[in-house]
Amino acid sequence: MIRAELTRKLESAVGALIESGVLPPAIYPIEITEPRNAQHGDFATNFALTASKSANLPPPKIAEQLSELLKSDTCFDEVTIAGPGFINLKLTEAYLAEKCNEIVDKGESFALTDSDHGLKINIEFVSVNPNGSIHVGHGRGAAYGDTLARVLEAAGNRVSREFYVNDGVNSEQMRLFALSVQAKYLELIGKPYVFPESGYRGEDVDIVAQKLRDIHGDSKAGAGIDFFQPASQDLMIESQKSDLARFGVVFDTWFSEQSLHDAGKVEDALKILEDKGVADREPYCDEIQLDPNTKERKVVRVPTEPGALWLRSTRFGDDKDRVIIRQDGRPTYIASDIAYHKDKFERGFDHLIDVWGADHHGYIGRTAAAIEAMGFDRSRFEALIIQIVRFLKGGEVQRMQKRTGESIPLRDLMDDVGVDVARWFYLMRSHETHMDFDLDLAKEHSEQNPVFYVQYAHARICSLLAKAKEQGFEPERLSETKFEQPERELIKTICDLRFEIHRAAESRQVHRLTTYAVELARQYHDFYEKCRVISPEEPIRTRARLTICEATRTALRATFSLLGVSAPERM
RNA sequence: GCCCCCGUAGCUCAGCGGAUAGAGCAACUGCCUUCUAAGCAGUGGGCCACAGGUUCGAGUCCUGUCGGGGGCGCCA
What are phi and psi of A156, to 5 degrees? Predict the structure, then answer.
């Protein structure tokens, strides 16, 4: 909120300089930065340096003119020129006090932006096949997608969270899973069974089979795949839903892949592609190859077996053409994906975000190509890749293989370290970097997790405000106050939340908010040590500092709710 | 071979093209008769992988090299 106001003030000052002929008319980028050294002031701008070239004036000259204008603004205590042409800005106490009051008045919503002008965004994430539990490898995408959705909402967009269920009846994986469940079920009721070759091992199959027996007794002894496939799928989806809900992730839509086939939407989409001439059954595949000598990219035509329907995605920037319908007539996953994205656009979303695991990065090109081939603007589609998390147990990398049952369920992690620690851990690092998660260390040191550091600041404030109330002190509006440095820094950081949310939303880097939260907590702890809050002999100061505490608590709560972690009042 | 990600303190990692590169953990030294010590203050620890380039200015952008991780099916 402060930064936005400062930007406006600078813009109008620059406008005035252009008006008076000091600066030639041009588009000048305005940037507000924070000096590393607090002695330089509260904020700074490098405007004189960046504008120097296009204005054809030396930076100090511009800085001088601009600072003269800014000095007339009552919100600045000091405007100084430093170094090669930075303008350092120091805010008045009254201005900071007013900002702090605003936050206490508005409550947690102070950081939110109205959604009137935002986009309607669909964000699809997790989308784990219904043949196993959500495991710790999926946790990152779940935490990331959910928090990104919250952050985008806070930044003023309308966001719909979607889980795409790969429930196609032709899915080989689902068929094998169902056969495994069937075998396990027959074993449980003491009937002869054959466990499918390379079938699914692991507790998911056991649990599902057990549940089916609990529900149906042995009445399904003679049932076939037609029963076991949908039945085990439904149970698995319910289990995924409840694990995710416990993790704080609730979807608006669970979208069934099969529903696209049933409604004929896959056929429709393919017909459109054929009509547009971007899909055909000619027996060739175009590929882009790199000439080893000239380093030039060229299209190479490779003959193929006839019969398949090809998407000519190479024309839209993909590496090679892709099969949509196999020789045997069965559609590939690309077919339903095309229909699915078309359906999302037709549901009225301005922007589509797909959150995918790193193993899917190769699909960005073909999906974007397919979307463009369908006639949609590819810039409205965005695939975000979450890098791999490696889990270490006893110093060894844990494999996450559903079929062998080697994976660690997310619910086990929640049992071991709790939802707050788990979510925080996933969210504290950029989604595009690799992470190693040592499970032994996480259990041992879970009380040293940064999330506790931040939550502790919140609990401290709650306790302090309660104690003050007992003694008859409540926060009230700040008026003329002399701030000490820790108070100043704290208020500025609180006011930064709105800005941080927008930056996180625009860059999709939601981990910035965990960094922000740690910084806010650090400053509160610093303030707590240096500025005694409750002192009965100084009632005015006591109330003022309580107001700062209240504003801090507000900012912490707002941040916690974006990250999906709890705000404990006691620790 | 091609594609994606990473390389910053002993470890795990933050770091918006700006001023003296940070945090947590680990190590060491202090601080509870006053608001929660899950805290605070301090010490040690860095050729920001390397080499070029762009820029008034590069840990940050571009190119290349080296090293690490992952991915490249008419599987989903």
Answer: 105, 15
- Whether residue A366 is predicted with pLDDT greater than 80 in this model: the reply is yes
Pairing of strands A389-393, A396-397: antiparallel
Residue A446 in this model has a pLDDT that exceeds 80: no
Classify the C-alpha dihedral A198-A203-A204-A205 as positive or negative: positive
Give the residue among A380, A376, A312 at the shortest CA–CA distance from A342.
A376
Interatomic CA distance for residues A458 and A571, integer angstroms: 9
- Is the complex ipTM more than 0.85? yes
Q: How far is CA A383 from CA A89, A120, A344, A360, A365, in A?
A: 40, 16, 14, 10, 10
Spatial distance between the Cα atoms of A184 and A201, rounded to a whole number of angstroms? 10
Q: State how far the Cα of A54 lies from the Cα of A231, in Å rounded to an integer.
A: 68
> What tokens were used for A85?
């042409």
pLDDT tier, A308 (very low <50, low <70, confident <90, very high otherwise):
very high
Edge-to-edge strands, sheet with A43-45: A32-33, A43-45, A86-91, A76-82
Distance linking the first and last C-alpha atoms of chain A: 31
Q: What pLDDT shows up at residue A480? A: 67
Residues 458-497 of A with CB under 7 A from strand B: 459-460, 462-464, 467
Distances (CA, A) of A15 to A21, A26, A28: 10, 10, 10
Q: What is the pLDDT of residue A476?
A: 85
Identify nearest nucleotide to residue A295 by CA to C1′ distance.
Answer: B2
Q: Rounded CA gap, A53 and A35, in Å?
A: 23
DSSP H or E run through A324:
strand A322-325
A166 touches strand B (CB under 7 A): yes
Question: pTM for the complete prediction?
Answer: 0.94
Tokens of A173: 């994986």
A428 CA, B19 C1': Å apart: 28
**For residues A188 and A195, is the Cβ–Cβ distance under 8 A?**
no
Which single residue has its CA nearest the C1' atom of nucleotide B20?
A37
Which residue, among A163, A213, A154, A157, has the nearest Cα to A186 in the 3D structure?
A213
Exposed, middle or buried, A494 (CB in 10 Å: 0-12/13-18/19+)? buried
Which domains are delineated in chain A?
2-91 (3.30.1360.70), 97-113+447-563 (1.10.730.10), 125-249+387-441 (3.40.50.620), 263-386 (3.40.50.620)
Chain B footprint bases within 7 A of protein beta carbons: 1-7, 12-16, 18-20, 22-26, 34-41, 56-57, 68-72, 74-76
Q: How far is the CA of A156 from the C1' of B28 (A)?
A: 49
